[in-house]
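FORM 12-B: Structure-to-Sequence Request
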């Protein structure tokens, strides 16, 4: 079934530019020029909303900052989570690899995406959108923004949508297709395979420009952008860590091979070796979720390599090295969702972008060795008793 759908999509992409303009016009409609919340859509139009988790206020503990700099996470974080649930609607369009949901009336249901109430992405919608390949039957979408070739968003923003799907009373037998980003090689593939999703029902978002579902089943975005609720980590751990590992590792999560590294890494390496840390790259382990579960302490620069914090056990010590040019609350929020003991050292970036710049910073950072060691010593003094292997570094 998947190969048939994939072949149809490829054929349409190849031939669409050769079609006469009148015929091409019938295959397209004006871009979605309206935004509507999913629950409001269900109240006004032909949609069924199933409430799963009620809205709630967020009460996060204040982070412990080291050094002279700090960050106002309160400004960057939401004060509440919306109601979470599942929508079932007719003739909706799944647009692009991010799986944006556009109703048959032309509404973009923005609260189902990473952007949520932040509507700046709406301005990037193309002038015309394909009517899409029509799929008869019920299509479940677990697609999300930035999840194609993006490990962090794939794990937290896509896989956890299944929790809402199941809690709403659905089963995989209720759907004919599952629209999902293709997992990247390594740990993402291992996790995806553990979910036992029927292979013959999978349609990869990477291959699609637009799909119009006879019946679409889709879930709320699992949180708000850069903010994670407790149920996300609870679901991920219940699915992938049925038995918690013995905590006997201290991990320094490296970003080798990527931008945004430590300028004075030799100084930091000496401290890490002194306190029996492993220099750990999650890319090198297909079972990195188990490695994080075994950690009593995790240290690392802000970036998707820290997604494994979702699998850490309650109380695990976290020291995030936050760049002054890359200030986002992803891992403060994720640590709170997993009930971890979060600490933060704000480090000066080699270069500083203009305020409000979009996307990740590429600038390396300087880590003050004395402050770094002071933080490590205190965290070790309060961690649970662990038996570290002699080859830790």
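FORM 12-B RESPONSE
SEQUENCE OUT:
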């Amino acid at each position: 079934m998947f190969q048939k759908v994939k072949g149809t999509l490829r054929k349409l992409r190849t031939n669409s530019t050769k079609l006469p303009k009148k015929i091409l016009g019938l295959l397209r409609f004006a871009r979605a020029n309206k935004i509507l919340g999913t629950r409001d859509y269900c109240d006004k139009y032909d949609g069924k909303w199933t409430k799963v988790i009620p809205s709630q206020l967020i009460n996060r503990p204040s982070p412990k900052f080291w050094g002279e700099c700090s960050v106002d996470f309160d400004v960057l974080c939401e004060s509440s989570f919306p109601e979470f649930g599942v929508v079932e609607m007719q003739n909706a369009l799944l647009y692009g690899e991010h799986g944006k949901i556009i109703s048959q009336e032309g509404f973009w249901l923005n609260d189902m995406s990473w952007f949520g109430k932040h509507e700046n992405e709406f301005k990037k919608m193309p002038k015309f959108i394909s009517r899409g390949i029509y799929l008869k039957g019920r299509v479940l979408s677990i697609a999300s923004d930035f999840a194609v070739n993006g490990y962090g968003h794939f794990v937290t923003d896509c896989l956890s949508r299944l929790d809402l799907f199941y809690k709403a009373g659905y089963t995989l037998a209720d759907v004919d297709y599952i629209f999902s980003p293709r997992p990247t090689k390594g740990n993402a593939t291992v996790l995806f395979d553990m979910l036992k999703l029927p292979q013959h029902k999978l349609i990869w978002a990477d291959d699609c420009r637009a799909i119009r579902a006879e019946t679409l089943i889709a879930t709320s975005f699992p949180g708000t952008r850069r903010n994670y609720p407790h149920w996300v980590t609870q679901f991920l751990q219940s699915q992938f860590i049925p038995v918690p590992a013995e905590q006997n590792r201290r991990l320094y999560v490296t970003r080798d091979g990527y931008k945004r590294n430590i300028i004075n890494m030799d100084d930091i390496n000496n401290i890490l070796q002194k306190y029996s840390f492993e220099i750990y790259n999650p890319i090198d382990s297909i079972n990195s979720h188990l490695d994080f579960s075994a950690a009593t302490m995790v240290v690392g620069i802000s970036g998707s390599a820290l997604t494994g914090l979702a699998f850490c056990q309650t109380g695990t010590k976290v020291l995030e090295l936050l760049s002054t040019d890359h200030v986002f609350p992803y891992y403060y929020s994720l640590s709170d969702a997993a009930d971890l003991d979060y600490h933060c050292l704000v480090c000066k970036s080699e270069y500083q972008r203009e305020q409000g710049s979009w996307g990740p910073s590429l600038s390396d950072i300087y880590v003050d060795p004395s402050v770094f060691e002071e933080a490590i010593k205190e965290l070790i003094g309060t961690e649970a008793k662990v038996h570290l292997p002699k080859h830790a570094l």
